[in-house]
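Hi team,

Filling in the usual template for the complex we talked about on Friday. All components are listed, including any nucleic acid strands or ligand strings, so the model treats them as one assembly.

SUBMITTER: L.P.
PURPOSE: interface mapping
COMPONENTS: two
RESIDUES: 225
SEQUENCES:
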Amino acid sequence: CYQEPPKDEL
Amino acid sequence: MNIFRLAGDMTHLLSILVLLLKIYATKSCSGISRKTQELYAIVFVARYLDLFTDFISVYNTFMKVVFIASSLAIVWCMRFHPMVRRSYDRELDTFRHYFLVGASFALALILHEKFTVQEIFWAFSIYLEAVAILPQLVLLQRSGNVDNLTGQYIFFLGAYRAFYILNWIYRYLTEPHFTRWIACVSGVVQTALYADFFYYYFISWKNNSKLKLPA
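RESULT (copied from the run log):
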C-alpha cells in the first residue's frame, strides 16, 4: 500500500 | 525542494533575523507581542518532535534547530533581559492567547492524519501557527504606530506564508501524491490574516510614508 512520506516541510 | 519553498524558508529566516536585529540593536521589543512569540516557540517545539525520529536532510534538521533556538531566545529576551523586558508593551499585549492554544489542541484531537502523539502535535502546531500572529496584529492595531523593523518583520513573515502557498500549488501540480490538506487549508487561513496588514504596508510603501494602521 502507499505509505505517507515523512513531513519534509518546515 | 523547489524555488518557492526555498524562498519561503528564506523569508521566514529573514523575518526572525530582522526581529533579532531589532531587539539586539535597539535593546527594545516595543511593538512586538510576547504572546505571539511564545506561541511560535510552542509551534516549533510541538512540530519538530520528529527531529529525533525522522531524518530528512541536513538542511531540514539545521533549520528546525534554528527555528526552535531563535524562538526560545526571543521569548527569553522579552521575559528576562533586563533592558529588553522594560520596553515590552505589556498593557497593549492583552490578547488571551491561551484560548488559541486550547482551541488548536482541541481541533488537532478531532482533525489529524493519524491518531498518534506525534501526528496530533504536528496538527496542533499547524493550527496554532495559523492563528499565532493574531496577538501581534492586535498589538499593532492598538499602538497604531509601527516602527520600520517591526513592519519589515511582519512583512517577511507574510511573504513566507505567500511563498508556501505557491510551493503547495507547485507540488500539487508536479507530485502525484501531494495531498497535505491540513497544512494547505490552515496555510491559506494564516495568509489571509495578513491581507489587511499587507494592504496598509503597500500603501505606506507607495506613498513613501511611515506605516500606520487605522484605529
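MY TAKE: Chain A touches chain B at residues 2, 4-10 (CB under 8 Å). The two ends of chain A are 26 Å apart (CA to CA).

Thanks, L.
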